[in-house]
Design goal:
The complex is a heterodimer of chains A (367) and B (134). Chain A has 367 residues and is of the alpha/beta class. Chain A contains nine helices and seven strands, in the order H-H-E-H-E-H-H-E-H-E-E-E-H-H-E-H. Chain B has two helices and eight strands; from the N terminus they run ββββββββαα. The chains are: A alpha/beta (367), B alpha+beta (134). The interface between A and B is large, with 36 and 36 residues.
Chain lengths: 367, 134
């Protein structure tokens, strides 16, 4: 029989742990709410940008009238010999299987392309650590200096051309960004996309994929590998690989969201979307200050940037949701443990008392 | 026709301005545009510069760096990559950015990406100007 004091000590420790996990859950719920708001606020801009592009497609002659081939390099498909994969994970752990699941899909993705060269850009510490253990890092990558107001001190990636000729391995890491997820910054996404587009246009990579945890609402989440480049159709996401969450996971999420008071339905965006849909698509004869072609070419790279930005926002929201769920499960596990330990302790105490009584009684009887 | 139009400025992170404006001056790529209610429909790219608009008598200023604008007779929508109110501008940062860009332009180093440095300089100067006119 275990010592009562020991059990009591253990109960106290579990109670403390429960307090911590409970606090972490509350914090994650608050962060999740903020992340959701951020994603909402970013919606009008991306919607409008997409709409302008769509309406420009018809006016800008981006497709060759004879062959039907797109004239813009970002739209043209070519044979995939080397691809770039952007992996978005979290910077921190304690979020259940959030990071593990993403990295599992990464491995799957890499296996599904056995003949292609793969460059990997890691966003988030967890993914970077995982990839580093497996694949070589290409040295001397200009790091992105994240700035808030539009100034980024990034030198143009001039050494990339050499890098392409001497690869460190079939799969190699060409960039890693840690600590950018705390406050997702549109500038960072834009700088990254400019860098990628430059490499794409130089022909170092033939396709760009981004692998992240899609987050529509607490329930509607899945892991996706989305193709960013070449752009197949503007306004459509080009999903190459997706993994839905299991029923079990979904149940847990609902449970966690309920107790944390986080809305489970995706917020209603129809009004905002409708307003955004009107942007630059009115059936009137617009004066174009610049030729549509030029406008189109100016906006298209921004479109890629905004897609990366969105992926980051969703991933951050998903990470907080995952942490909230994990902490909710941990809290209820701790409660269960406390219950069973209390039971054991009571039993031990009872046994001790009984033993003492027997000792006294038998002692008295012996006299 | 009413004598105001709806002005909306949207940035990637939020809806920055939603106001009924009487007139606006906007830095188009090929020069500043003055917009009054009832303007013909127009689409243009924006340059780096200062947006000035009048709403209920008061004049407001904002700095903007790359964007895109749609003008309709009763509504103007601006998609701005980066836009700030004067009181949001970090003057010290802008000053530093300006100094850095100037240094890079003066250095005569072949490694310097001139268009980029010029861009940065222009952005910084616009920010400083806007901040001054608070």
């Amino acid at each position: 029989m275990a010592n009562i004091l020991d059990i009591r000590r253990r109960i106290r420790s579990v109670v403390n742990t429960r307090q911590i996990t409970k606090a972490m859950k509350t914090v994650s719920a608050a962060k999740l709410r903020r992340a959701q708001e951020g994603a909402m606020a970013a919606r009008p801009y991306s919607q409008m940008l997409t709409n302008v592009l769509k309406s420009l497609v018809s006016r800008a002659d981006i497709y060759d009238p004879v062959t039907g081939e797109p004239r813009h390099p970002l739209l043209a498909e070519r044979e995939e010999k080397s691809v770039l994969l952007i992996v978005v994970t979290g910077d921190k752990g304690l979020a259940g299987a959030f990071n593990t699941n993403i990295l599992k899909l990464v491995s799957k993705f890499i296996q599904s392309k056995p003949d292609e060269n793969i460059d990997v850009e890691c966003i988030g510490r967890k993914g970077r650590d995982f990839m580093r253990r497996r694949y070589p890092v290409v040295a001397e990558k200009p790091s992105i200096e994240v700035a808030v107001n539009g100034e980024t001190g990034v030198p143009p990636a001039s050494q990339d051309a050499e890098v392409a000729s001497k690869r460190a391995g079939r799969v190699q890491i060409t960039g890693e960004y840690v600590g950018v997820l705390g406050k997702v910054d549109h500038n960072f996404a834009n700088t990254l996309s400019e860098n990628i587009i430059a490499r794409y246009c130089r022909g170092e990579i033939d396709a760009v994929y981004i692998l992240f945890n899609e987050f529509k609402s607490v329930i509607a989440q899945r892991l996706v590998a989305e193709r960013l480049l070449p752009i197949k159709e503007i306004g459509e996401v080009d999903i190459q690989m997706a993994e839905e969450a299991s029923l079990e996971e979904r149940k847990q999420r609902i449970e966690a969201a309920k107790t944390a008071g986080v809305g489970m339905r995706p917020p209603d965006t129809s009004a905002a979307d409708e307003a955004a849909a009107k942007f630059a698509t009115m059936p009137v004869d617009y004066i174009y200050e610049q030729p549509p072609q030029q406008l189109f070419e100016g906006i298209l790279p921004k479109y890629v940037g905004i897609q990366i930005f969105h992926a980051l926002l969703e991933s951050v929201a998903a990470e907080h949701a995952a942490r909230m769920t994990a902490m909710d499960a941990a809290t209820s596990n701790a409660s269960d443990m406390i219950d069973s330990l209390t039971l054991i302790m009571n039993r031990a105490r009872q046994a001790k008392i009984t033993k003492e009584i027997i000792e006294i009684v038998s002692g008295a009887a012996a006299q | 026709m009413s004598n105001t139009f709806q002005l909306e400025i949207v940035t990637p992170s939020r809806l920055l301005v939603k106001d009924a404006a009487e007139e606006a001056q906007i830095p188009g790529l090929s020069g500043y545009l003055g917009i009054l209610p009832g303007h013909a429909p127009l689409i243009t790219e924006l340059a780096v510069g200062m947006i000035t608009y009048k709403a209920s008598g008061a004049t407001h200023r904002l700095s903007v760096a790359w964007g895109f604008m749609e003008v309709l007779p009763d509504k103007v929508t601006i998609l701005a990559e980066a836009a700030e109110h004067p009181n949001e501008i970090d003057v010290e940062r802008a000053q530093k950015a300006k100094d850095r860009a100037e240094q890079r332009l003066k250095s005569g180093d072949a490694q310097v990406d001139y268009p980029r440095a010029e861009d940065a300089l222009q952005r910084a100067e616009t920010r400083l100007n806007v901040a001054k006119e608070k």
